[in-house]
Amino acid sequence: MKLPFDRTHRFFNYRVALFLNIIPIFIIGLTSEFYSGPGREFFNDYFGDFLYQIFLILLIVFIFPQVDPSKTAWGVFIFNCIIEFSQLWKPPFLQGIRTTLFGRLFLGSGFAWEDFIGYILGCILGWILVVRLKRKNT
Hints:
Shape: globular
Largest sheet: none
Number of strands: 0
């Protein structure tokens, strides 16, 4: 029996490649939320959304390497659309969560149609990245 961490296991190199892509995307995405230079609005409001889609796709496929990348990309897109539309609902308990850093990063702070562009582009690029990594490493 081959263990998941055995280098000869077919998903080992794939997972390493996924992990090596997750790290910089996570770091750049998180720092884009705090960027204060030129183009601040774009980086704070849209670029982070784009990278968040890619990050989630890579993370899910890293945890479940056998999952179909297209189903993952669709799932991430639908999940984030639900989160975006939930921003129209403003009960006190959700508003309280949204005042925290984690709540703002995960649940968002306000609905914006423009966010869907980042969701679409991020999911497409995330899907392409996962498909290429899988083809190259399995």
